[in-house]
Amino acid sequence: MVSFEAWCASEELSDDYMIRMHQRALELREAAGLQLFESRKHIDAIAMCYGALGDVAMFRYWTKKARSLRAPSYVGGCVVLDQWMMDPRRFPVWGWRNSRRGDVL
């Protein structure tokens, strides 16, 4: 399995490589009736990938999904996710894949 950091730095792997991998994991879990079991980590990963790509619309879409899976008692995490949705550039790895490859957003 390729790490997030390795994907960000790779010129060989496609931009959607990690996204497709995590989407496939979600599809397999759903087919097995396990969509609630560890789905959040895959949704979080997809949001991170879109953040690393600097894709505002898809980052917000997947971050909103990630937020909806947080327990209401997880207020601190929800506040951070809300801040990132309002201003994606505050996301710690915003545009990281592009910048590590020398691309400019």
Automatic annotation (TrEMBL):
It comes from the Eukaryota. This is Uncharacterized protein. The lineage of its organism: Eukaryota, Fungi, Dikarya, Basidiomycota, Agaricomycotina.
